[in-house]
Structure formats: C-alpha cells, structure tokens
Specification:
The structure holds 2 protein chains of 2 kinds. By secondary structure, chain A is mainly alpha-helical. Chain A has helices at residues 15-19, 43-47, 68-94, 98-121, 130-142, 150-163, and strands at residues 2-5, 53-56. Chain B contains 4 helices and 3 strands; from the N terminus they run ααααβββ. The longest helix of chain B has 27 residues, at 86-112. Chain B starts with 12 loop residues before the first helix and ends in a 5-residue tail after the last strand. By secondary structure, chain B is mainly α. Chain B has 3 domains: 10-55; 57-113; 119-158, Single Sheet (Rubrerythrin, domain 2), CATH 2.20.28.10. The chains are: A mainly alpha, B mainly alpha. Bound molecules: iron/sulfur cluster (SF4) (2 copies) and fe (ii) ion (FE2). Residues 3, 19-22, 24-25, 32, 37, 39-44 of chain A line the site of one iron/sulfur cluster.
C-alpha cells in the first residue's frame, strides 16, 4: 500500500508534512512520493483534515474470470455502441450546424461511455491485469502499421510484467 | 449481425479505442499518470483506424439502437444471469436504461429537429453515459446515482 493525495481536496494545511516519518508527503509536485512511502502507515491519511489522502494497493487481485458466453454477448453490444459512436463522430465532423454538432457530440460521448463500461465488465477492468497484458502482446505481435504506437505498447507491456512480478524474457 | 473484427484481437478498432480509453481512466484512478498517457496513445491510435462503418446518419444510429434493445440486450441478460455474473448484469442494466433514454431523445430529434434543445443545455454522465437535455442536470444521475458534478455539459461550438 502507498498513499496518494487528491490535489483538488488538499487545502495545504500541511499536517501530513509533520506526521510522515519518511518525508514522502513533502514534494514539489503536490503528489506523494511513492518511492519514499514504503510503509503505507496511514499516519497522513488520518492526520489530513480535508480527507485528501487515501491508501491504494500496490497489487490488485485479478478480476473474476469471465465466461466466453458473457464476453461474446457484451462484445456484440460494445461493438454496436462503438459503431454508433463512430457514426455520431462523422456527423459531428461533417455538419456545419452548431446545434447538430452539439447533438452528435453528446451521442458520441454517451455511446463511448457505455462501450467502455461494457468492455470493463467483459474482462478489462484493471489496467495492469493479465488480460490486458495478453491483449497488448497480441497486438504488438500482429500490428504492422507504421502508425501503431509500438513504443507505448512495449512500455506498457514492461510495466505490467513488472507489476505482475513476471520478469521479461 | 456478422462481427467484422480485427481478427487477431477479436475487437473492432472502435472497440479497441474504447477499451484502451477505459484502461487509461482506470490508471488515473490509481494516480498512474504515465501509464494513463500510454493507454491514451493507444486509444487515439485506434480511434483513427477505419472500421466497417456500416452505421450512418441519425436514422442509422436510431435503427442500430433499436436493434440493441430488441436483439442484443435480452440474450446478454440471459447469459449473464445463467453465469451469475453480477458485474455484467450491472453494466447491462445501466446501458439498457441509457439506451432507452437516448432512443427517446433521438425520437424527439427526428420529429422536431434540433429545436427541442435550442434554448437549453445537454449533459452526459461521465460514469454511465446518461444523456440529459435541460437547464440544470438532476441532483444525482437517475441511472448510476453519481452526484451532478459528474454530468458533463456538452458545449455548443459555433
Ligand atoms: S494534510 Fe491534507 S490538506 Fe494538509 S497538506 Fe496534507 S493532504 Fe493537503
Ligand atoms: S502512509 Fe505513512 S509513509 Fe506513506 S506518505 Fe503517509 S505518513 Fe508517509
Ligand atoms: Fe450516470
């Protein structure tokens, strides 16, 4: 566990600076230094008058495995929602009427959010999960477009393997 | 409906974009900003990759949405119930409610055109996608119950 500070809630009363035994709360960036916050001792969490600090886990349990049937049924819906999103994005781009553009933007966004939620429940809830890793590895091996953000994908793969305690081969 | 996919992943480019933008938001919740940015790059990349684009126009969106309600939600609910997948049932419940609301708003748009929101605002709930047309969004989202600060106003750009 380590502490994180919600900067929007922090009123800079600075109590956390006095209580932290390692100086992790004292940074220039407003964020708590995860490298120094080894203990996750909660002293800052309890001291903060603004409830701006919470502890987060360094490792999360894997999401409940999803059956193929559920994945497929959710997948048909997320596919449909993203198709509707794309149709709305095209309408937004091609229309010259500000009202119609606004309407199309709202539709695009609503569909994107529904699709995100459905995909999350189809097995992609955690950014550092084995499922996410598998997908990234599949894409990295198969994509050959020059525009494919290969560096980003390789970095992500490295980060997730590190999180999962798997040494890269 | 035949699912045209980017066969090696099983997902269309549009879905991959949403999948990665969702993971990017997941990183932000854990304050992992570098990771959030990397997933964001992937989301933008796939947003630009052409897909099948078989749905076009407001009428096309409406028809597709009706098909979701008639043909896709009921079997999805059934199989999630069979598998006692509470997470999936929760997501389906929200998306079903939002879909019905959007469907009725699309109906208003089809008959009255944009005049029905000319003198008011549009908001979208960041958490569930709930679409609201009116001066002030409700205190809490009627679908997912988040407080109104999560209702994003959709700007009108001249
Ligand atoms: S104690 Fe809380 S409010 Fe005060 S500086 Fe620390 S985080 Fe901010
Ligand atoms: S949890 Fe403990 S070590 Fe970590 S920042 Fe807070 S007071 Fe410092
Ligand atoms: Fe909502």
């Amino acid at each position: 566990m380590h502490a994180v500070r919600n900067i929007r809630l922090c009123t800079k009363d600075c109590l956390c600076l006095y209580v932290c035994p390692t100086g992790a709360t004292d940074t220039e960036t407003g964020q708590i230094d995860a490298e120094k916050c080894h203990s996750g001792c909660r002293l800052c969490v309890d001291a903060c008058p603004s409830h701006a600090i919470s502890l987060i886990m360094d490792e999360y349990p894997e999401q409940q495995p999803k059956t193929d049937g559920v994945k497929k049924a959710l997948g048909l819906l997320s596919e449909s929602k993203t198709e509707q999103e794309r149709a709305a994005v095209t309408l937004e781009r091609e229309s010259r009427d500000p009202l119609e553009k606004q309407w199309a933007r709202a539709l695009a966004l609503s569909n994107r959010i529904m699709a995100e939620d459905l995909l999350r429940e189809a097995g992609y809830m955690l950014p550092q999960s084995g499922e996410a890793l598998k997908l990234l590895e599949t894409l990295a091996a198969a994509e050959d477009s020059p525009d494919f953000p290969r560096d980003a994908v390789e970095k992500l793969i490295g980060m997730i393997r590190h999180d999962l305690g798997r040494v890269s081969e | 409906m035949e699912k045209v996919v980017n066969s090696f992943s099983g997902y269309t480019p549009g879905e991959l974009s949403a999948l990665f933008s969702n993971l990017s938001k997941g990183c932000e919740k854990q304050y992992r900003m570098e990771m959030a940015g990397l997933y964001g790059e992937l989301a933008s990349y796939y947003a630009g990759v052409p897909g099948e684009e078989s749905t076009t126009g407001f009428e096309g969106i409406s028809a597709r949405l009706q098909d979701d309600l008639d043909a896709l939600f009921p079997p999805a609910r059934e199989i999630s119930t069979e598998n006692s997948d509470r997470g999936a049932l929760r997501a389906l419940k929200w998306a079903d409610k939002v879909s019905r609301i959007v469907k009725s708003q699309l109906g208003r748009f089809a008959t009255k055109g944009s005049s029905f929101f000319r003198d008011t605002n549009i908001y979208v709930c960041e958490i569930c996608g709930f679409l609201f047309v009116g001066d002030e969004p409700p205190e809490v989202c009627p679908v997912c119950k988040v407080p109104r600060i999560k209702m994003m106003p959709i700007k009108r750009v001249a």
